[in-house]
Amino acid sequence: MLTIDFKRLNIKAGDRLLDLGCGEGRHCINAAIAHTDIQVVGVDLSHKNLTVARSRLNDFDTEFGSTARQNPMTLCLANGLQLPFNDNSFDHIICSEVLEHVPDYHAMLGEIDRLLKPSGVLAISVPRAWPEKICWWLSAAYHQVEGGHIRIFKAAALHNDVRHFGFKRYARHWAHALHVPFWWLKCLFWQKRDSHPLVQTYHKFLVWDLMKKPWLTQTLDALLNPVMGKSIVMYFKRDTSS
Question: Do residues 36 and 69 touch, judged by C-beta distance below 8 A?
Answer without folding.
Answer: yes
